[in-house]
Design goal:
Layout: E1 3-4, H1 13-19, H2 24-30, E2 42-43, E3 50-58, H3 65-73, E4 79-83, H4 95-103, E5 108-112, E6 114-115, H5 118-123, E7 128-130, E8 132-133, E9 145-146, E10 150-152, E11 155-157, E12 162-166, E13 169-173, H6 178-200, H7 205-209
Parallel strand pairs: 1-9, 3-4, 4-5, 5-7, 6-8
Antiparallel strand pairs: 2-7, 3-9, 3-12, 10-11, 12-13
Length: about 220
């Protein structure tokens, strides 16, 4: 039997909308270079993007019943963030679960494991980030956790944390840090716009960033 928490605190919807305008790299830098999930977790399609509050899921090895349950727990706009106890070689998610998630208006899936039915998922334009594809089936015994803290790589993820993924990677922003990270992200965007304008005027990156270099041209 899974250990499930159904009620979590979510970020202000306006903050989620603002965050969706930035890239994963910009938010990662703005957060002090924190929150990047392992680069092995990649999008099925490089042109997809997801952003929303995390519904955290810890699944038993090679078992996906808890993930089915998480689809019921999630609210519109949520993102399922799933770890699979380190057992990657199973297809924890497929086309039927994708249909179910779309009906629940879930914004996407991030799973530190494999999925299957990749072509069907891409045809449905549902954002999925995974370690790859695997045709091996799963059991349905449950016993996992929903909306409890989990860890992916070096990143601790709490229910309701903001997650944003795009073609470059995935970043997790702790809920309490979202306003300050977005403020820094905006400043970074404005600074990079200025850098691009100065480059057009003939300046160099070494000059603009003030790096000390001994390069002799």
């Amino acid at each position: 039997m899974s250990n499930i928490k159904t009620h979590i605190q979510r970020p202000d919807p306006e903050l989620i909308i603002l965050a969706s305008n930035f890239s994963s790299a910009t938010l990662h830098e703005a957060a002090g270079k924190k929150g990047a999930l392992p680069s092995e977790i990649k999008p099925l399609s490089h042109d997809i993007k997801l952003c929303g509050p995390a519904i955290t899921v810890s699944s038993s090895p090679a078992d996906n019943l808890t993930i089915h349950e998480a689809i019921l727990v999630a609210q519109p706009g949520d993102v399922l963030v799933v770890e699979v106890s380190g057992v990657y070689e199973a297809g924890y998610w497929g086309d039927i679960m994708t249909h179910a998630a779309r009906e629940r208006q879930i914004n996407g899936l991030i799973i530190d494991g494999c999925v299957r039915d990749g072509n069907e998922i891409k045809e449905m334009d549902f954002p999925v980030f995974s370690r790859g594809l695997c045709i091996r089936g799963t059991s349905k015994n449950g016993g996992g956790f929903i909306n409890h803290p989990l860890k992916m790589g070096e990143v601790r993820i709490m229910p309701g944390d903001l997650v944003l993924g795009d073609g470059d990677g995935i970043v997790v922003i702790p809920q309490m840090e979202i306003p300050s990270v977005l403020e820094q992200a905006q400043k970074r965007e404005e600074h990079e716009k200025w850098i691009r304008e100065e480059l057009k005027k003939g300046k160099t990156t070494v000059e603009l960033y003030g790096w000390n270099t001994q390069l002799i041209l």
